[in-house]
Task: structure prediction
Amino acid sequence: MTDTSPTLRLEGVTRRYGRKVVLDGISHSFTKGLTLLTGPSGAGKSTLLRLIATAEKPTAGRLHWNGEPLPAARSALRRELGYAPQAVELPMELTAREFGLHMAALKGLRANEADAQFRLLLEGVGLAADANGRIATYSGGMRRRLIFAQALLGAPRLLALDEPTAELDSESRERIHALINRAAQSAIVIMTTHLSDGVAAAATAVLRVEAGALTPARAGLAA
Ligand SMILES: Nc1ncnc2c1ncn2[C@@H]1O[C@H](COP(=O)(O)OP(=O)(O)OP(=O)(O)O)[C@@H](O)[C@H]1O
Ligand SMILES: [Mg+2]
Result:
């Protein structure tokens, strides 16, 4: 790991599904700090985050991580990535703590270090008391907070957060905003949201995804 600020550059990134062009030749450089992605439902915000998280490949165009093009730099990007997808199937039979240890192992963290780190993260999102509860018993909001917590494991320098505060109460939302703002001091944090809520003020950039393009939007404009 280097001391220099992380950079993520998209160059002419296009994503099609069949004949449908969702993202049309997007070029943009993301730097350290919080970038919000807004835009109407179905515009391609989640698609863009999946490309950034390397869960999908662009149909055309390229990503560059710290100046190196993918796919060569894909594993380097993944080592520094935290990703909270909008919709994901959780292993219902595991406890939150077991799930955290599993995710930490995938990220290459050592078990004792991972346990301590995840305990702090669960505390941060208000799930400390439920750490040993099975995910099956979790409410929707608890599951969303758990998905967010695992994304922060390993102090990633690239965080892709897909509506991390959707349907959360204001207390949980504020907890998550605090963790996001802290992470954004050293990481590239790219977060989708439909809300012009508390984080907008702290954002270094607000971008709008619409009609296949990514354009600067003023903070405070709701989707
Ligand atoms: N795997 C897929 N196959 C086909 N079409 C897809 C696929 N994934 C997404 N799409 C389409 O791509 C478009 C963008 O979807 P996406 O989920 O990225 O939008 P979004 O901006 O995240 O919307 P929302 O705000 O509702 O979450 C939609 O028209 C969607 O139907
Ligand atoms: Mg989405």
Notes: The pocket of adenosine-5'-triphosphate (ligand 1) is lined by residues 17, 22, 39, 41-47, 86 (CB under 6 Å). The beta strands are 8-17, 20-30, 33-38, 60-65, 68-69, 81-84, 158-162, 188-192, 205-210, 213-216.
